[in-house]
Amino acid sequence: MTEVCELAPFTFIWTIENFSPMSCSTITSPSFIVGFMRKTKWHLEIKERNEQEGYCCFISRDNDKNKGPRTIEIYFELAVLADDGSVLTAEKGQGIFKKRVSISNSLEMEDSLWQRWMKVSPRGILAIRCKMWKNNASKWMTVRHDLCFARTELRVEEKNFIWSIRNFSSFSHLKDGIKLQPTTNDEPTLTFKSLGDEGQ
């Protein structure tokens, strides 16, 4: 990637309150508009890869309908910040974005990162910084430097219930356990497993 100035023409800082590595599979930031990039609309996404690979964060262009160019080439940098603003990890990339297109140059967020993050961010606030530069062969600097902030608050929903299992003794050695189907599609499926007489 071509070297660019540290002070980007546009910087977006997204803070997520009450975050934990087990929060949810996908978190999407509020959309933001980058004026000097012909008022194109963007957002960030944090997605869970799987239990072994952790999370990744990537930048995505929104559907601007009839606004903005059909394609636009940009340089960008994604970073995770500590509470004091220092960078824990960062990833630079570039790409040509069409509408509703994300870029594969994602910021990897593995277990080692979460261990460091929990030490320096005890309040549970995850801060993601996105810097953006437009591809211009002759000019990397602009007089104006825009800074945009967004905040997302995650809340925990707590539910209590009584689960009555008929003929419980006949299920004591059932390997797959007993599944409780959720009442809505966006809730996880609960599974009850018995260890049996030997405790194994």
Automatic annotation (TrEMBL):
Protein name: MATH domain-containing protein
